[in-house]
Amino acid sequence: MNVQDWLRSVAVKIQGIDRELVRLSAAIPHWPADVALKGLTTAANCSRLWFAVAALLAVRQGATRRAALRGIAAIGGASFTINAIAKPLWPRLRPAHEDLPIARRLALRHHPQSSSFPSGHAASAAAFATAVAMESRAAGLAVAPIAAAVAYSRVHTGVHWPSDVAVGMLMGSGIALATRRWWPLRVGESADSRHLTRVPTLPDGAGLVILVNPSSGEEGEHPGAELAAAWPAARQVLAEPGTDLVKQLEAELDASESPVHALGAAGGDGTVAAVAAVAANRGLPLVVVSAGTLNHFARDIGVASVSDAIAAVRDGSAVAVDLGGVRIDGGPPHWFVNTASLGGYPDLVELRERRETRWGKWPAAALALIEVLRKSDPLVAHIDDVPRRVWLVFVGNGLYRPRGFAAAARNRLDAGLLDVRYVRADVQLSRTRFVIGALIGALQRSRTYVQQECTGLKVEVLGPPVALATDGEVVAEGSRFEFSIQPAALTVYRPD
Question: Which residues of the chain have pLDDT under 50?
């Protein structure tokens, strides 16, 4: 038997199974669920049901909002794949509605004429449910029964064969899982470092000076009172708006009459970076209190809450981590704990963070990226003495994952390398090619995108000075930027 004959015999067997399952479904006596299933399948037309569920999920920030947004993205991918590709490729007649009890039939002027295979309703239902579960297990468990009911309703109302539904659900789930290629899942685990160390235990905070930034995070929610209760002997310094935090903290330490054993930062990544620079210069360990909006560095070192910081200080457990540095126009090094960026990237960061708490990181980043690429002018520069025209330049302290331009988090804090990524503007249709490559997860094979790992990087801008952003804050303008990595330069308290 050749392949063609084998495929024909398989198709005949599947059709026989489909007919038998449809016959069994049609034989089910009339019951109240008939009305509910007809209403459910109608509500799912054009994914209206899923958009309504997504709107409910998006009311709350965090995982459920991300689940709603990923679900909508998955539906978009599933609808396009099913309707534009799969149905035209595999035309199939729908079940004869005359074989169905009248109570089951949908109130349609005309029986659907599009291909029965695969089921678009089932694909969208499975895509949405899978995408939601990827971000929030609880929300996924709530949505899954509704998705299963929608899928079955297509057989119950006689508009699809069971195999149409089964294949549609498989395709929808697969498309939802594929969104991880360009929209990484939120990373929750902390990064590793081989430089484990012991630092002073400070159970009451004696010898700890902690800079508290009241403007970080949500208004009026900085943890000053909680820290005072946990560390009554610690000295709190409130960040003064509009001042250089490094200079303010240095002045406080120079004026201190009592010994200082550790420095602390209660705020976002910008506050942490400022205190980290002082701690590294003075050889003091750093206490990070997660009190900002995003807290990337705190998440990477495994300090997700105030209680984590308190436990680490009580136990004296810590790790040594790398610091990134950049000299601007030959000046002193400016230290960063997460990332530095040039070109349109500072604008991208600003636009993304403005929308991030409402929409989630990756949708906000995608919109910001499109807006920056559309409006910004290319940066003309020498990158390690090679002439380039680029749209964006990203420099990470350590190696970020995933590969591609959606850098999310680090596996290690002691890689001893910079993660350099930039988008070339000297390639024809570079912006369009970059966006397409990012969407399909193929940036590694795109000529518009460059990614390298190195211990140092020189960028000399030809033209007016440009802004540098580090750890989400625009810090200075310049024309010559020399990036470097300082291995194990900073000791940070972290719970065992």
Answer: 220
